[in-house]
Amino acid sequence: MNTYRIKHLRELEAEAIYIIREVAAQFERPVLLFSGGKDSIVLVHLSLKAFWPARIPYPLLHIDTGHNFAETLAYRDRLVERIGATLLVGSVQETIDQGRVVEERGVNASRNVLQTTTLLDTIARYRFDAAIGGARRDEEKARAKERIFSHRDEFGQWDPKNQRPELWNIFNGRKLMGEHFRVFPISNWTEMDVWQYILLEQIEMPSLYFTHRRKVFQRDGVWLADAPFMMKRQGEEVVEMDVRCRTIGDVTCTGVTLSMADSVEDIVNEIAATRVTERGGRYDDRRSDAAMEDRKREGYF
Amino acid sequence: MTHNPTQGYLDMELLRFTTAGSVDDGKSTLIGRLLYDSKAIFEDQMEAVRNYSLRKGNQDLDLSLFTDGLRSEREQGITIDVAYRYFATPRRKFIIADTPGHIQYTRNMVTGASTANAAIVLIDARNGITEQTRRHCFIASLLRIPYLIVCVNKMDLVGFDQKVYDEILADFNLLRSKLSFNDITFVPISALQGDNVVEKSGMMSWYQGSTLLDILETLDIQTGLNYTDARFPVQYVIRPHDDSYHDYRSYAGRVEGGVFKPGDKVVVLPSGLTSTIESIDVFQGSLPEAFPPQSVSFRLADDIDISRGDVISKVDSLPQISQEIDVMMCWMNLRPMKAGGTYVLRQTTREVKCIVKELYHKIDINTLEPGTDTNNLAANEIGLVNLKVAKPLVYDAYSRNRQTGSVILVDEGTNETVGVGMIIG
Ligand SMILES: Nc1nc2c(ncn2[C@@H]2O[C@H](COP(=O)(O)OP(=O)(O)O)[C@@H](O)[C@H]2O)c(=O)[nH]1
User: Fold this and answer.
1) Which residue in chain B has the smallest CA separation from A13?
2) Ramachandran assignment for A214, one of left (phi > 0), alpha (psi -120 to 50 degrees), beta (any other)
3) Considering the domain boundaries, does residue B224 fall inside one?
4) Are B165 and B17 found together in one domain?
């Protein structure tokens, strides 16, 4: 035995930085998918660490459904300003206006699925060959099997049955023209790891993650934020509650939790005590048991 | 267990382990049990599993469903790929690489084993050691996983009888001489009822050892890392092109062996150029030393030519350099490997072309003995091959260093990873 011991967060960090540097070395046109959520914020932080004192050698890409929390956009713009990164925005509204996709109708209408087309269009337009994403294997069953360097064919599709073997530290990013990779540096992190890391590194987080009073209503057991574009069913009553977001995404499918947590420490303690997964609060995954797998095959995040 | 998540987390370590067993030995149930008893399963997951069990007409909660994966596999009723699971106790965070027990899926076992510190092999107490048990142990041993934990499962079905357990241990001892683990531990368990998994069994007082979770929480994680031979494969060159860091240049990478300190004399391979480490840089600062598996960057005292794929080392423990290597190869692709075939080889951060000069012999994975057939290596077969590479490789034997001693072969046409190998020398 010797004194060269490394704790789990530092080991996860070292692994993520290694993966991020592999992306910069192996690909010509990488991009970081930035949603404004905690996972992509941690990815930006890890990217800063990986290349310091140089700037992050790739732009950030936000796929904008048009249904954002105002706080997300404010945070995004401040972050980009502070780190001197380039921000690109792919607009779902534009994709709809171009007639590439048709807006869903009804009370459960969401632009979450439509994002896939915008994402793939944007990747093709800028000829990105690697898109770094913040997905984690603990989030969802379909993700548990996905590789860290995950190959996408020229249609942007994932083939779970035909994934490349991934061994040791060796990541194979070779591809044909028109294909790309999704790369997931924090695959091995859990929700708890992410928050503990935020605490350890004192990363500034958007206010949405902390308790605040908000107009909300309940649907099928999930609390949803109210907004002008949120259609309500009869009997769905808007009330004011103390809530916080556990994940941040498109407003139409981001469930909020009743919570009084107003510091990262509170959040860590809250997660330690919670008995529901973070995606359990996401309305989009409730549609079916295999919802995520279907979306991923098509090219979703 | 009292545990403060905002304080204790700084002291936790990470253990990666892999699980293997034949179909129906109880692997899924065991993982479900570990997750369930360590409270890593949430209410909504529980609800989904309950619903699914009920739909199938199953009254009891089927623990194995927690680890069940993609839809098509669920329909076939088998696990067919590597899936990763996570759970934590106050002492450690665990990553499970869950791999299937099917004959045709050697490739997945090898994949799961490549990063593991420990392997759990399950044996059904009623069946004892089978051909698959042997195969799983051999693969884990070939991949140099430091620790093997043999769980004799379904003890409830043999009346928790010590005799059954002892006989299986005696049988296992006949295998030992062929295995290269640092340590092998045995535990009698019932994954279904939870005996000796997380809680000590009340039914097997004859067993004096620890529970499975205890063992996992106390294994020495450092075993398997090399702290003696300094190895730093360069991944990426950091150059800010920026006024405040005008002449800054550092070499980014991950320490794959040994310990580096500022002031150390280093040699860059394969060029053989030498320099001194001026600083070990990390975000907004520097470190007094760097060791595996840290990701850092080195600034050197001299302006020498270094790029991705080079290895920074020290003269007191030089790696091997050669254009010809012998490799224990596991074939991963449906199109077989043939002698004379050319591939792209990747090792640490280096990429070179290679040709398969010779396939000496296959390994019979049921006995770990050399076989005779030498024409080609088909999917899921393992064989000893000789490779010639276009440019010198800087490497160690896999038995010395799992990171600098491993290679993958990539098909130049399809870009698929078709073979994975461990360098013998
Ligand atoms: N009696 C008993 N049955 C078990 C035990 N562990 C697993 N089983 C049962 O054995 C069957 C196969 O288990 P499963 O976990 O699906 O096996 P896998 O194919 O190895 O993943 C299931 O019916 C389990 O309920 C055990 O310790 N005792």
Assistant:
1) B295
2) beta
3) no
4) yes
Euclidean distance between CA atoms B335 and B331, whole angstroms: 9
Higher pLDDT, B39 or B134: B134
Q: Which helix (H) or strand (E) holds A187?
A: none
pTM, whole model, 2 decimals? 0.91
What letters, b where the CB count within 10 A reaches 16 and e where it falls short, cover A24-38?
bbbbeebbbbbbbbb
In a domain, B344, yes or no: yes
Our mutation pick for probing the ligand 1 site, out of B24, B122, B203, counting the most ligand atoms within 8 A of Cβ, is B24
Give pLDDT, residue B70.
Answer: 41
Write out chain B residues lying below 8 Å of A164, CB-based.
416-417
Please list, in sequence order, all residues whose beta carbon lies within 8 angstroms of the beta carbon of residue B243, skipping any fewer than 6 positions away: none
pLDDT band at B38 (very low <50, low <70, confident <90, very high): confident
B347 in the same domain as B284: no
Give the range of the structural domain holding residue B298, as residue numbers without chain letter: 231-314
Nearest to B294 among A6, A160, A293 (CB): A6
**Quick one: B259 and B174 in the same domain?**
no
Q: Do residues B38 and B168 share a domain?
A: yes
Question: Is B26 contained in some domain?
Answer: yes
State the Cα–Cα distance between residues B120 and B21, nearest whole angstrom: 8
Tokens coding A205: 């987080």
Nearest to B329 by CA among B362, B364, B369: B362
Q: Is pLDDT larger for residue B364 or for residue B419?
A: B419
Which tokens go with B34? 């570990």
Cα–Cα distance measured from residue A273 to residue A278, given in angstroms and rounded to the nearest whole number: 13
Which class for B57: exposed (0-12), middle (13-18), buried (19 or more C-beta within 10 A)?
A: exposed
Q: Say if residue B79's pLDDT is above 50.
A: no
The domains found in chain A, sorted by start residue, are 8-193+290-298 (3.40.50.620), 205-284 (no CATH)
DSSP alpha helices (H): ranges in B206-365? 212-218
| Residue among B13, B93, B114 minimizing CB distance to A167 | B114
Q: How many CA atoms lie within 13 A of B377 on its CB side?
A: 33
B64 lines ligand 1 (CB under 6 A): yes
Shared domain for B64 and B140, answered yes or no, is yes
Residue B346 in contact with partner chain A when CB distance is under 8 A: yes
Distance B17 CA to ligand 1 centre (A): 20
Place of tokens 């620890």: B210
Q: What is the pLDDT of residue B77?
A: 45
Judgement on whether residues B267 and B361 belong to the same structural domain of the protein: no
Q: How many structural domains compose chain B? A: 3
Across chain A, which has 301 residues, the per-10-residue mean pLDDT values are 82 97 97 94 98 96 86 93 93 80 72 80 92 88 83 83 87 92 95 93 93 88 81 85 83 80 90 64 47 63 66
Please check whether residues B178 and B302 belong to one and the same domain: no
Same domain assignment for residues B278 and B363: no
Phi first, then psi: what are they for A113, rounded to 5°? -70, -35
In the prediction, which pLDDT does A295 show? 64
Domain end point (choices B282, B314, B346): B314
Q: Do B295 and A192 touch (CB under 8 A)?
A: no
- Domain boundary (B256, B288, B314) is at B314
Whole-angstrom distance, CA of residue A71 vs CA of residue A208: 7
